[in-house]
UniProtKB/TrEMBL annotation:
Its main location: membrane. InterPro entries: AAA+_ATPase, ABC2_TM, ABC_transporter-like_ATP-bd, ABC_transporter-like_CS, ABCG_dom, ABCG_transporters, P-loop_NTPase. Residues 26-263 form the ABC transporter domain. It comes from Daphnia sinensis. CDD domains: ABCG_EPDR (cd03213). Belongs to the ABC transporter superfamily. ABCG family. Eye pigment precursor importer (TC 3.A.1.204) subfamily. One of its GO terms (molecular function) is ATP hydrolysis activity. The lineage of its organism: Eukaryota, Metazoa, Ecdysozoa, Arthropoda, Crustacea. It holds the Pfam family ABC_tran. It is a multi-pass membrane protein. The keyword Transmembrane applies. This is ABC protein.
Length: 485
């Protein structure tokens, strides 16, 4: 381990120890996933099972297009339509609403506002996620702890735009750690990082797992050094599980199917080649040996053991396609308070954040000033002396209407146009019940059967409509002015 990693490790372990997570074991059984409906339906996952234990860092490994992200999205509750199967937390069927509070999902790309410093970013997130019930001093100490945990204390006053890829990734992880999730899902946390930063990031994840959390990460082509940090390996090929168990047992397991990993060869590279079919059609053998993830390959005994079996009776949960078990009386629905921070706190915190980003983004602010000034001049020329005459009362009304339109569109347009880019951020925040627990952007698009291209077309349509309203308004007004003269 190089000096860089050791520094991160020694910084991280005691600090993470203070952020203890409840032990939640995640078990899933017979997960099927079909993308799209009707003619375009495509089966992606074929009855996968598995178990991810708390205190373990699990890697989901597999070639591109094998179904890693699909599986993780289903387990995280991000994807529900088209998915079937049973998902349990500590042997009890997953309740999606509760599970979203217990888990966090960190996407591959870091969607961070570049103008804020680490300090400001974490404090803003703490104010929103921890809410008013946690005192200001407690919030501050939690922020300090998270920064120390992630080794970000030294760069606390650096703006996000100037951070390295590794620091951005650690910040994304830190933001999710604030509300102390018990299960952490990470989609390709090492993508775009150099080997040293990747090791540092995975070492951090292992320390987080050691504090009693379940940490699951999809990973692409890990080096053998990186692989050593993981406790548990779950290998996916063509939507099925071909191995589940400790890293050290992978090579002996492959030997049972007459697949000999060459000496000094990275087992991860070898198993990827196997998964891609370079060693013949061995996938059915491997899938049936491990029973598509129902079994865990044991390192010590060189054998497989059966996962704890979930109870059989089930009905379909209305929020998901995943089945849930019915036992005894159904408890009365409790009203769950979705926002930790009050409405006023949210408004105040977000206004402050917006003000900071606007103030620091001088270029955008100048462009906005110029745009409004030019628009103001245009409106002025169009309605010049319109209000002097009582007969022009209609012009006054139309000017007020026009101004309202400008204010409305000018303020909503940036949000509307950047919505697809922001979608992942919203999605993540949605999962953590941060700001918008009931507004699921992906669901919103699915509901209206919209993909991103149709979304863009609707934005273009709105723009055309806006321009048409303005042009007709202008001609109608000049015609009216002429007829009045
Ligand atoms: N909505 C969809 N419609 C059609 N095909 C889909 C859809 N979603 C996923 N797929 C397909 O399912 C397969 C698995 O996708 P997934 O993103 O889970 O793979 P992956 O293992 O995570 O790949 P990568 O490592 O490249 O991200 C891919 O072939 C993908 O094209």
């Amino acid at each position: 381990m190089d000096a860089h990693i050791e520094m991160a490790g020694s910084d991280v372990v005691p600090a993470v120890g203070n952020l203890i997570g409840a032990s939640l074991h995640l078990t899933f059984r017979d997960i099927y996933y079909t993308a799209n409906k009707g003619k375009n339906a495509r089966k992606i996952l074929h009855g996968m099972s598995g178990t991810f234990k708390s205190g373990h860092l699990t890697a989901i490994l597999g070639p591109s297009g094998a179904g890693k992200s699909s599986l993780m999205n289903i387990l995280a509750g991000l994807r529900t339509s088209g998915a079937e199967g049973q998902i349990q937390v500590n042997g009890v069927d997953r309740k999606l609403k509760k599970f979203r509070k217990q888990s966090a999902y960190i996407t591959q790309e870091d969607h961070l506002l570049s103008n804020l410093t680490i300090d400001e970013y974490i404090m803003t997130a703490a104010n929103l996620k921890l809410g008013n019930k946690v005192s200001s001093s407690e919030r501050k100490s939690k922020v300090e702890l998270v920064m120390k945990t992630l080794g970000l204390t030294h760069s606390r006053h650096t703006q996000i735009g100037s951070l390295s890829g590794g620091e951005c990734k650690r910040l994304s992880i830190g933001l999710e750690l604030l509300n102390n999730p018990d299960i952490l899902f990470l989609d390709e946390p090492t993508s775009g990082l150099d080997s040293s930063s990747s090791l540092q990031c995975v070492a951090l994840l292992r320390d987080i797992a050691r504090s009693g959390r379940t940490v699951v990460a999809t990973i692409h082509q890990p080096s053998s050094r990186l692989l050593d940090y993981f406790d548990h390996l779950y290998i996916v090929a063509s939507g099925m599980c071909i191995y589940q168990g400790p890293i050290g047992s992978l090579v002996p397991y492959l030997q049972t199917a007459n697949l000999e990993c060459p000496s000094y060869h990275n087992p991860a590279d070898f198993v990827m080649d196997v998964a891609c079919g370079e060693y013949g059609d061995v996938l059915p053998v491997l899938v049936s040996t491990i029973e598509n993830g129902r079994l865990v390959y044991q390192e010590i005994y060189g054998s497989t053991s059966v996962m704890p079996s979930p109870p059989p009776k089930s009905r379909t949960d209305d929020a998901t396609d995943v089945t849930i078990t019915v036992t005894g009386n159904i408890p009365k629905k409790k009203k769950i308070k979705t926002y930790p921070a009050s409405f006023h706190t949210q408004v105040a915190v977000l206004l402050e954040r917006t003000w900071r980003t606007m103030w620091r983004d001088k270029m955008l602010t100048k462009v906005r000033f110029v745009t409004h000034f030019v628009l103001g001049l245009l409106v002025d020329t169009m309605y010049w002396l319109g209000g002097d005459d009582a007969a022009s009362i209609l012009n006054n009304a139309s000017m007020l209407f026009f101004n309202l339109l400008v204010i409305l569109f000018a303020s909503t347009m940036p949000t509307v146009v950047t919505f697809p880019m922001e979608r992942n951020v919203l999605l993540r925040e949605h999962l953590n019940h941060c700001y918008c627990p009931n507004r699921h952007p992906q669901k919103f698009l699915e509901h209206f059967n919209m993909d991103e291209s149709s979304y863009y077309w609707s934005v273009v349509g709105m723009l055309v409509f806006f321009i048409a309203v303005r042009v007709t308004g202008y001609f109608a007004l000049s015609f009216k002015l002429k007829s009045m003269r």
